[in-house]
Known about the structure:
three-stranded mixed sheet, Rhopdopsin 7-helix transmembrane proteins, globular, 3 strands
Amino acid sequence: MELERRGTGNGSWAIEFQILGFSEFPELQLPLFTIFTLMFLLAVLGNLVIIYVVCANQHLHSPMYFFLANLSALDISSLTVTVPKLLGILLIDSKGISFSQCILQMYCFLSLTGVEFLLLTAMAFDRYVAICHPLRYTMIMSKRVCTLLAAGSWTAGFLEIMSHAVVISRFSFCDSTVIDHIFCDLMALMKLSCSDTSVIEMMNFAEGGFTAFIPCLLTLTSYGFIISAILRIRSTAGRRKAFSTCSSHLMVVIMSYGTMLEKPRDKSSLAKSLRKKIIINQ
């Protein structure tokens, strides 16, 4: 598809992108649709059950489970942003997506990724307080503090990426609108644009530092203090009990950072990354 969208990029709003998905494997469309649908439904159902149980059970009204419910809500949102469109491509070959919808999908996906990093950091802080300052845990991790940490994570994640959406919405797309991915990815749009992408590249680098490097550093610092505190516990049973309170969160951190920091560059690796995320969310 040949286009002519030059100048300020205002004409780009009339573009309809074509997301290829797995169109080069027509014989696999139905099997892939079935697999992704089942995994998507299981992931959403699993996260809904977690949210319901946390809200319904008074014994689970604690900071750790509060953040877990937030993480489940985020996982549902993240999957809902990308998977339904992919299913439409696989089932009815609905490849078309308008420019505004594509920008919105990219914005939501990147924002939710940032929110996840920040929520994991808040959960690491919660585990740090629980292990290193158990006597002051209730006072420090009050309901107000937990609400502020969660609200701050969601707000910062969505505000921080807004500038990316504004900049890329002014890009010009001159030659092709075919996105060789399974959703509107930032890097895919940058490759298609005939505009100068140096600004968005610098913004992307800075965003990576804010939403990935700094939270990762804070999480590692928290676990450094946690491990140090656990090693000072004399009894083996005490160390085991202390470690068990943060082991599940540590596992989620490792899987989430490992999956997100892969930065898949093609459809195959992108599909693997999405599949890993669905499995983790179960």
